[in-house]
Structures are given as structure tokens and as C-alpha cells.
Amino acid sequence: MVFVEEQGVPAEIEVDTFDEDALHLLAFLDDEPVGTARVLFDGEVAKIGRVCVLPEARGTGLGAALIGHGVEVASARGRVRRVMLGARVRAMGFYEKLGFRACGPVYDSAGIAHRDMIRDP
Questions:
Q1: What distance in Å separates the CA atoms of residue 28 and residue 21, rounded to the nearest whole number?
Q2: CA separation for the pair 94, 103 (Å, rounded)
Q3: Chain mean pLDDT for the chain
């Protein structure tokens, strides 16, 4: 819903082959699923992605909790030395508050400006 309907991401690229190997996180509010993220592992790097929270649950801290849990999961995998994500440019301030710093140029992903961000686990 969030990516396809709200952000206009084409449905055919919403699901990809990485979903099979990813660790999926799910956030609940009053026993209802309202947020999700996934974590992919590639050697010493964990990549958090597909982070979204439904409109009715925004501002509750669930997004930060999803990111925090993703970092904790990465830390628990002793060999992970870097956690990264592709942030929407307009959301970079949110991730900076969670300890991420920008790296690399701005790029287009599904028609939305993004920039990679990294932090230590």
C-alpha cells in the first residue's frame, strides 16, 4: 500500500528476488500490523530497506523502532561491520537522528531521489 499506492512505485518492482533471502521485520500497534522493514546480509554489510509505516501509525516511534531493531539484528551477526540503507532524500534527517550518515551521490530509485546512508552497528 505505502510504496505502490502512496509513493507511486510500480507494483512489478515492489516484490523482488531479495525478499526470499531477507529477514523481514513487522511492527504492530494494537495487535494490527502497521509497519515493516527488511534486512539483507552481504558479508560484512547489512542493508535495511523497504521501511514503511502506515499513515495511521506515523509519529508513534514505530519507524525508529524498526530501524533500531534492524541495527540490533545486524549487530547480533558478529561479522557485520556496517549497516546501510538507501534513504529517500526528504527522509535523510530522520535517519541522521538514528546515527546514519550520508555517503555517495543522490540517485533515482523508482522515480524517487535517494541517497545511501551508513552507520556502524
A1: 22
A2: 15
A3: 87
SS3 content of the chain, % helix, strand, coil (to 5): 35, 40, 25
Q: How many CA atoms lie less than 13 Å away from 37 in the CB half-sphere?
A: 24
**β-strand pairing of 101-109 with 112-119:** antiparallel
Amino acid of residue 66: L
Grid cell, residue 74, equals 545486524
Query: What ranges in the chain are assigned the alpha helix state H?
Result: 11-14, 62-76, 92-97
Look up residue 99 and give its DSSP letter.
Answer: T
Q: What is residue 92's predicted lDDT score, i.e. its pLDDT?
A: 97
pLDDT tens by residue, 72-93: 999 998 899 999 999 999 999 9
List residues bridging with 52 in a β-sheet: 36
| Cα 74 to Cα 46: distance, rounded to the nearest angstrom | 6
- Cα separation, 50 vs 19, in Å, equals 10
